[in-house]
Amino acid sequence: MARIAGINLPPNKRVEIGLTYIFGIGKTLSNKILREAEIDPNKRVKDLTPKEVDILKNIIEKEYKVEGELRREIMANIRRLKEIGCYRGIRHIKRLPVRGQRTRTNSRTVRGNVRKTLGSGRRPAPKKV
To answer: CA-to-CA distance for 48 and 34, rounded, in angstroms?
Structure first.
């Protein structure tokens, strides 16, 4: 079982897809890393030799920010926006969409699926017997 950056890669997936399980590595970056390591992207993770896994580990650890380090950097950036009180920081504080999306409708994900109004979906009052 290949373990890179603290993540166990799924053994039956192709290496190209398996690397995307690491936070901070998408499909494009995965292909770039595999080209650099000279590993076939169609190879399965379980078929990787220990030497190939070691090469991948070295490339990822030396050249890219992934997992915890990347998450910390993202959190630090958001904290900085909040501290300086810019528009984006205020939107983060209020837990509203940050990137210009409308909020009259369609912001359920950021707001936590809040439904404040009762529409016509009310149940009719029970009939007296």
So the answer is: 12
Task: For residues 50 and 83, state if they share a domain.
Answer: no
Structure tokens of 15?
């290496």
Distance of alpha carbon 53 from alpha carbon 73, whole angstroms: 26
Question: pLDDT per residue over 72-99, tens digit each?
Answer: 999 999 999 999 999 999 999 998 899 9
Q: Are residues 60 and 8 in the same domain?
A: yes
Q: Which one, of 47, 56, 35, lies nearest residue 11 by Cα? A: 47
Query: One-letter amino acid identity for 78?
Result: I
73 and 92: one domain? yes
Residue 125 domain-assigned (yes or no): no
Whole-structure pTM value: 0.74
